[in-house]
Amino acid sequence: MIEQVFNSLFYFLSELAVSVLSLLKALMRLQHRTRLPARQLPVCSVLGNGPSLNQSLTEQLDFIRQTEIVCVNNFAHAEVFTQLRPQNYVISDPNYFVFTAQTTDRPDISRTLAVFGEQVDWPMTLYVPHFAKGSYLIRTIGQKSPNINIVFFNYTVLTGFPSLIYWLYARGFGMPRAQTVIVAALTLMINRQFETIYLFGADTSWHEEIRLTDDNQLLIKQVHFYDKPKDVQHEPVYSDKHRQRTFSMASQFLSLHKVFRGYEIIRDYADYRRVTILNASAKSYIDAFERITNKLVMSDER
To answer: What b/e sequence results for 110-123 when a residue is b if at least 16 CB atoms lie within 10 Å of its CB, and e otherwise?
Structure first.
């Protein structure tokens, strides 16, 4: 009994402390408040870049086309990008915002910028964190991509009592920790008040591709739906800028914990906003959202 009381008191005080800290962070960044465009349709599809998206694009393409489409990070590398003509695109990879014309080790970012400048001939909203303002990426898009409207979102990580942080999330003062870009995309689309959000290509299966060498080097093979699997190799995941030491197995699985915990927070926040999230990925380890495995057909009521 005493232990239960102690644990309850400890939990309350811990949540109170992080809630106060979150409120202070939100107050310090009031000027970064996210202001989002109104939704165009009642239903949207968030397309992750997992390998299973190829199957979904084969089996569910007609349905996806009837929704408001949200793509993320390097989706523009796929030929289907210009066929889908997505209305929304979310980038949260910090490497995009330190990229410059002199950067030589990120040809993927150069490719994305080229596609934006040369092929996006339809209205598209690009969502990037507020700290991207003034970056080479944003300046280049502003100069070469007149059809892209940029929206800056407030990536202030807020934790604490749900009643407080959900209120803050809803008003654009912050969001959950976005360990993956999908968490950021889902938060933004919840705040745009879609009735239903369908999630595709969210395999979240990186653990299947973890390898450990005899020297205890951690290797991972990251395959996306637009890659040719035979061209993707297991590579070291370095934890220091000198590329001398890889992440430990413990830290890698801690990162995975944060990914899955982020989806649980998003699920609860979506319930708070009365938004339904359905995981329609052909393959997925995400257990936070209801799974949909049958072929989807848009309701005539829409």
So the answer is: eebbebbeeebeee
